[in-house]
Design brief:
The chain is an alpha/beta fold. The chain has eleven helices and seven strands.
Length: 266
Amino acid sequence: MIERRLEASIAPFGRVIVAFSGGVDSAVVLAAASRALNADVLAVTASSPSVAQGEVESAAMLAREIGVAHEIVLTREFDDARYRANASDRCYYCKSELYSTLSRIASDRGFRVVLDGTNADDGAAALDVRPGRVAATEFAVRSPLAELGIGKSDVRAIAARYGLRVAAKPATPCLSSRVPHGTRIEIDDLRRIDLAERYLRANGFSTVRVRHFGSTARVEVPTQDIARLRDIQERAGRALAAVGYDTLEIDPRGYRTGSLNEPPRP
C-alpha cells in the first residue's frame, strides 16, 4: 500500500518535527512518522490570530489520538508589517515565521528534519499561488507526500485506512486567505470571518469560505449547496450583520481554491 512507501520514506530521517495543523494532510504525515519512528516524533501546532477558533484544540486532541508528543507555539507573523500589508507574497512571511520557529526547536533539541503536509496537488491549479513553498525550501522543510507524488484523494484514502477522524475534513486554510490582496490584515476582521464561517458551518455548510470585502461577505459554498444557501440567505444575512457584515453576497460560481487570485469580475 502507498502508506508503506510513505512510512519507508520517513524512516531514514531519524528524529522529526511535523508542522501539524490538524488537517488531513499533516495528520497523515504525522501518523506515518509515528509508525516509522515511534517516539522520535514531535508534532508542533502554530497558534495565531489567523487560525480559526477550535483548530488548535482539535489538533491537540488528534495528536493525542495518534499517540505522539505535541506542542503549541505562538507565532508572531502579525508583528511583521509585510505580512499585515497582505501583498501576494503574504504567505511567505507567515511560513518563514513558522519554519524558523520549528527549525530553532529542531536545532535545540536534536531533531534532524522538519516535515510538512504539502501534497502533490497543492499549487496545481493555475491560480493557486503558494509563496509559502519558497519559505519551506529556504528552511529545508521536507514534504514527503509531495515528494512521493501523493495527491489529495490518496491522502484521504490513507487517512481512512489509518483510522484518522479527519479523513473527510474539508481544508481549513488560515483566515487571512479570505482577505483580498492589498487589503491590510486586521485581527478584528479575521474574528468576523471566523464567526461568520462558524455560523454557516453550524447550519450544515461544511465547506464554506467567507471572502472579506469590507462590509460585504462574499460567501462561497460548493455549487450543489448554493440553492440551500439561498433558501436561508435572509436569515444568514441577519446573523452575519450581527458580526459586522451589511451584505451577504452568494458567489454563483461556487467554492474555488485561490478565488481571490482571479481577475476582477466586470
